[in-house]
Amino acid sequence: MTQIPTAYTHDDAAVVDIVSRRQIVNESAVAEVSEHLHRAVTRAICFMQDNLAEPITADEIARTALFSKYHFTRVFQRVTGDSPGRYLTELRFERARELLLSTDLKVVDISYEVGFASVGTFSTRFRERTGVSPSAFRQHFRTATPRTVYERLPARCK
After folding, report:
1. Is the pLDDT confidence value at 145 over 60?
2. What's the pLDDT tens digit per position in 93-127?
3. Which contacts qualify for 16-19: CB closer than 8 Å, 24 or more apart?
4. pLDDT class for 45, splitting at 50, 70, 90?
5. How far apart are CA 61 and CA 87, in angstroms?
6. Is 72 in contact with 65 (CB distance < 8 Å)?
């Protein structure tokens, strides 16, 4: 089972920054959500980022935010526009793209690094998202400068 930290602390600027980096579906909803809820979402996102290689459950993410799974899922979706599971999947694929472009790690190692137990599942889902296999993605885009997922995280999540 993944170790769940008891608290992440972020200043207000970091909380606003982490929420604003993702596509916000409803700007007015973000304004309505209390600082407490922003901090809960931030804790959850940092937990996801810190544990990409682990099999993280919705219950674990919610406990990190100190909410029930159902309440937290609604809050998280309201703030980010994505469910926690979809957000985690996006973080994993962003990290996979970064590793493909910036390292010489084998695809199998990258798949494990981003939380997939099967390289076949990783490759299939990667192809569904990008239209190409991980190896083809690496070959085609290797010369591009990747914008890493870490550049968009608050300093305390790095």
Report:
1. no
2. 999 999 999 999 999 999 999 999 999 999 999 99
3. 17/154, 18/42, 18/45, 18/152, 18/153, 18/154, 18/157, 19/79, 19/80
4. very high
5. 11
6. yes
Q: Give residue-wise pLDDT tens across range 49-77.
A: 999 999 999 999 999 988 999 999 999 99
The first and second tokens of residue 84, run together, are 């926690």
Dist CA 146 CA 144 (whole Å): 6
Give the contacts of 151 (CB within 8 A, at least 6 positions apart). Answer: none
User: Distance from CA of residue 135 to its chain's centroid?
Assistant: 22
Instruction: Specify the 3-state DSSP secondary structure of 61.
Output: helix
What backbone torsions phi and psi does residue 116 show, to the nearest 5 degrees?
A: -100, 130
* Contact predicate 102/149, CB 8 Å: no
Neighbours of 138 (CB within 10 A): 20
